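Appendix C reproduces, verbatim, an entry submitted by the partner laboratory led by Prof. M.T., so that reviewers can inspect both the input and the predicted structure.
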Amino acid sequence: MDQAKPFRYIIESVTQDGKRFRPSDWIDRLSSWDATFAQHRLVYSERLHPVNIKGEKCLAIEPELKEQAPAMYEQIIGFARANKLKAHRQTPDGEMTEIALDDL
């Protein structure tokens, strides 16, 4: 894969052995770490936010998070590793390639 091509990381709510991860609201909880509160509601950041892919809620992590908030990035990746969640690299055309959590 061309490393210069724009991408983002996607973490699924499914473990590497195919089981659904619980609690089901973990994506919203982690996304709130980088969110703001405006106009009486939570506004997710562009760096860390929920996305819906093929009907499944996933966590999107933009590469800028690693540079701009390295401690937060490491905590999120550590959470994904500890719970053995599936991770992908997604390009703007929607193509997703599964990656090992150790590669994040």
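The first strand starts at residue 8 and ends at 15. Additional entries are available on request from the coordinating office.
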